[in-house]
Amino acid sequence: MGAAAYVPRLIVTSGEPAGIGPDACVLLAQDAWAADLVVAADADLLAATAAALKLPLRIEAYDPSRPGAAHAAGTLRVLHIPTRSPVTPGVLDTRNAAYVIEMLDRACDGCMNGEFAAMVTAPVQKSTLLDAGFAFTGHTEYLAQRTRAALPVMMLLSGELRVALVTTHLALAQVPAAITKDRLLATLRIVHTDLERHFGLDAPRIAVLGLNPHAGESGHLGREEIEVIEPVLRQLRGEGLNVRGPIPADTAFAPRFLADADVVVAMYHDQGLPVVKHVGFGNAVNVTLGLPILRTSVDHGTALSLARTGKADVGSLRAALALAVTLVGGDADHAGT
Question: Which end of the chain is more exposed for a tag (fewer CB within 10 A), N or C?
Fold first, then answer.
């Protein structure tokens, strides 16, 4: 008799309780998944959400001592974390900020100790967390601090298009000073390592954008390419990394350039991400590279006005979960059937 098939256990954090995160979790539960799916949330909130959406849902309390089993449609194993205040769909409440943080901490720590193979995060409301006094600039930065990772790297993907960022949630005026040789070296090494480690790409082809228009126009439109980016790329090529650039951002996403790249590395948030979101908004996935754990996420916000209306598009969370299942060794052919 053969060994039982590996069933990875993944945790999904349900995000801002007044947003579409709970809706998305209930909708995902309607499908079968080739993973042991656990949702961190208030169980009563999920039950109320299922009732509002008129969807069947059988909630089971999560028991970490039980062996993993593939997710059955219509059920949901819930790691119950109580909200701090009653939830009104679409209405933010700083009293529930601690609930959101507790979900993230529990999921992150569970991934660190091997309880979960990966975490998938529904969107949170950063303004509410900040207003409640939490130093929170984003999931990416928060999880890096929690896992003591030196440098997190945000990468969004849609289909075959992957775009990673050197800087993330930073005011545009602060970007040039933040692009140092050390930061760029570290970012590109992380991109290289994690594309090999998580995606199985051998010597991934990394296309690096310039910071300035026309990649600086030989120094006439800025010298960051000459003084920072080009020396870094020469050094990394000497280390054996397959990097090219700096490439002008206005031509780098043409199909003939993308055909020769496994990933595009952009210098700042709005240089690279608009292209990914144009190609696949609602179905793109955010992957955090540089962490000791695997974390995928949605490419959108909390969509407060759509909470409990049945009109929310959950394609991005579905794609994030399917990617996580695939990357941790689940059955990709039966992920989300």
Answer: N
Domain count, the chain: 2
Residue 288 has pLDDT above 80, yes or no: yes
- Residue of 64, 78, 77, 126 whose CA lies nearest to 101: 126
Confirm whether 284 is domain-assigned. Answer: no
* Within a domain: 275: yes
Asked whether the beta carbons of 269 and 165 are under 8 A apart, the reply is yes
Alpha helices in 15-138 (DSSP H): 21-28, 43-53, 97-112, 126-131
Q: How far apart, in whole angstroms, are the C-alpha atoms of residue 65 and residue 33?
A: 20
- Average of pLDDT values for 141-155? 94
**Over the stretch 76-105, which tens digit does the pLDDT of each residue have?**
999 999 999 999 999 999 999 999 999 999
For residues 184, 186, 189 and 193, what is the CA-based torsion angle, rounded to 10 degrees?
-140
Q: Which domain holds residue 165?
A: 153-279
Report strand pairing: 118-121 vs 75-80. Answer: unpaired
Provide the pairing of β-strand 285-289 with 153-158.
antiparallel
Residue-wise pLDDT tens digits, 1-27: 445 577 899 999 999 999 999 999 999
Do 87 and 129 reside in the same domain of the chain? yes
| CA proximity to 103, closest of 60, 70, 62 | 62
Nearest one of 107, 188, 156 to 296, comparing CA atoms: 156
Long-range contacts of 171-175 (CB under 8 A, 24+ apart): 172/268, 172/270, 175/211, 175/267, 175/268
Is 130 found in the same domain as 7? Answer: yes
286: in domain? no
Residue 170's CB: how many other CB atoms inside 10 A?
Answer: 15
Q: What is the spatial distance between Cα 122 and Cα 48, in angstroms, rounded to a whole number? A: 18
Examine residue 254 and state whether it is found in any structural domain, yes or no.
yes
Query: Same domain for 117 and 30?
Result: yes
Same domain for 79 and 145, yes or no, is yes
E-strand stretches of the chain: 9-13, 36-41, 58-61, 75-80, 118-121, 153-158, 161-165, 206-209, 243-247, 263-266, 285-289, 295-297
